[in-house]
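Handoff note, outgoing to incoming analyst
You'll be picking up this chain. Sequence as last confirmed:
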Amino acid sequence: MKIPDLAELALRNLRESLLRNSLTTVGISVGVASLVAMLSLGIGLQQMASRRLVKSGLFDTIVVTSRRELRGMGREEERTGPAPGVSRVLDEAARTEIERMPNVAEAYPDIRFATELRFEDKPHLTMVSALPESAKSNDAFEGMQGSFFSSGTAAEAVLQKSFAEELLGKTPALGAAEPSVSDLAKPLLGKELTMRYAQRGASPVASPAAPHDLSGAAYSVVSREQKLKIVGIADLDPESMRGPTRAKVFLPLKLTESLHVMQPTDLREIARAASDQPVYSSISVRVKNPAQIQGVEDAIKKMGFTAFSILDASRGLRQFFAVLYAFLGIFGSLALMVASIGIVNTLVMAILERRREIGIMKAIGASDGDVKKLFFAEAGAMGILGGLVGVGLGWAIGEVINLGTNVYLKRQSLPPEHFWAVPWWLVGGAILFAFVVSMVSGLYPAGRAARLDPVQALRYE
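Most recent structure output, in case you need it:
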């Protein structure tokens, strides 16, 4: 039997029992819609988590530290690499070498220090951190009041909300409502802070008798002050993942480097004294594409440094979403499995109603294979049509729920989110899955129809 004849005959048979076949197709559509809706939810949640990580500035960032920081810590890196005491120093030369690596966008030092800031002649002790200009895209600064730094060398500061509350003496009591960022920004933006810090002076002096012996090296530490203009108040915490060492005041990176603030590594690293280069406790390396993180991280480890990225911490997150996909797919497929029973029922009923037709077909030369193909064509047509309608229905369900959730978030003064995603591969996969389930459901009816004795079929009334 030719394919056009087979298709025409299958569609004619489906039209003859329109109501029953339509209800069966609707059952398939509901099953596909539930499958698409559930998987779309999982995909959307994963994409939302990925967007948050990317916008946080951590997803494409590798934190590099010297192996000398591992002394006495019993870390795995200490057992697998060179001894911490003889490992390479994380100085300016190493930072430049890392920045020149392929796929690296930038490598900047992690400069942070505890210091005193005076506001209206009142001292406040806090942690200060330096940020590059690229940090402007961090989602913590999206809803900030004021502006980001005007340049990398500007004497400006961005405050975290909690420190702004401290400056104004508005730290809320337990259970009380927190002041809004706009309320904090009005009396602070444009005001001046005075930062007092310790500046490292001239290079240490070695013993004349032993020029390379720096055991008696002396550092010159000078007390300095720097005036800073408050230009922004950030609602979210840009360093929420740093734990107790996170900063509350942020300065431009180039300005902070020019201040030569005394760092803990200045006292620990004798190698710094020998080379007179800045030595960093850690540096942050941003890659051009998050997909390239693993390659860059491996290359940095080969240099003798310790490297850590959010990719290492997100392996458990990816495993969680894989399990979530499996459960959502299983529960979403249950409705489609129920719909497959409807297909079997519809086709079996069609056999009872069309026994005489099947007998005539066999009598005029149709083979068992032709009869099977006809029933498979009918099952496949219901599967494809049900899959198409189901995908559209699942997408509509997702959009309605997403819209309703965003209305709720807006009423709670929270930013909107898009956590429902229907990629093209899911559309194609759902339609294909519906087609395959329909074809499998047609196995028994098709086989039963093909086994009919034409003589008995023609006698059937």
